[in-house]
Amino acid sequence: MKASQAERAADSESILSVEAVMGYSLETSEENAVTARLHFWNGAWSIFKDNPVLGTGLETYKNVYRQYLDDIRYYSIDPHNVYLKAFAEMGIIGGAVFLWFVGVILVLIVKSLLLIKKIKRDSDKALLLGLSMGLLGSLTHNFVELDWQFPTNVIIFFVVLGVFYKVYLLQCHTVETESIHEQRKVVYRKGTVAAMLLVAFLVMTGGVLLFFSETYQTAGNNAVTDFELTKAERAYSSALRFNPLSYNAHFGLAQVYYYLIPEDKEHYLFQYKEELERVISLNASDYRARQLLGVHYLLSKDYQNAIWFLKQAVGANVVGMPELYLALATAYHKQGDVDKAIAVLERAVSRYQPSLSESVIWVTNDRESILNNIASLHVGLGSIYHEQGEATKAKEQYEKALEYDADNEKALQNLSKLLIEKEIILR
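and the corresponding structure tokens:
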């Protein structure tokens, strides 16, 4: 049986490599681009329904969606639909403004298509038609993808939009359907120009500040990877000078202080906890800070606080990280509340299936690590059953663990121990 599983895994790996090179699809009736998008869209719609007025905030979908995710295979940092993303993150107000903007472009596209019939030169017709279809194609494709996630695509879209509008105005003037003055319908008053310049200045300033903040933050991440902690601390601090609201920079600083705790435990432990609390205050949907605080209190044997933060972390990342459930169950178990520990683990293992290891649509760099952590959930649950004298349930959980990780040492050791105990009892 193990040999056949290994052969299938090898075949799967070879097919995956072929797919990567040749573009062949491994999609099935259950796992395909359509079912994936339906999950993404349903998540975005659920977020909008729960936050209908103002949404959850720009670029929060990737974190908030974790709270609505019911199948780990279908996590995505975006809903693959720019319109649903707008409503989920900006609510009815921001979403309506965005739809108005798109509507204006669509009206211009329709007018340009009607205008083409009156244009005499074929080259002018082709140019206006090509620009119109390019814009329409981008707007349509954003129903199933998020092209505007990449700044380059946004820049190209607005450059094309500007050229299209200019060509449209020139052609209107040429065929004398309307004057350029009537087409623009803009009164260039001093106040209007001043307001436009002020908005442009504020947007440019904000963009520059964010750019420098992100640059320093990247430098901090690289320094942490190289374990250059002093350099990392300076980089993150510089990032926060440009953008004090960057929760990622605060989280980076927390990592630095964690590594510095052995040098001055009291000082850096205080700094570590303070930065994590700032992350939570700036980003209510961030599970990482809650996880680290929960684990910190768990190691400090402060089980009440550990349970508090770990429950929040689990709520913010329902299926993405099995180890959150394991840490929460451990805190309950250490506190002496075995029933709650069992309840947490039973709820956790019910969210995953062994077929996950063969999923063709689950995209993650941590597949093996996650599968190992799911195996650990089963081992943890089996261990508690073992303690409670429920040998049959314990054996079932250890065997389940081996379905996710055939080489899991704890599962193999505990299963052997269980079988030895059974033999001794029979004798």
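(Above: one complete record from the training split.) Confidence is low (pLDDT under 50) at residues 1-24, 177-189.
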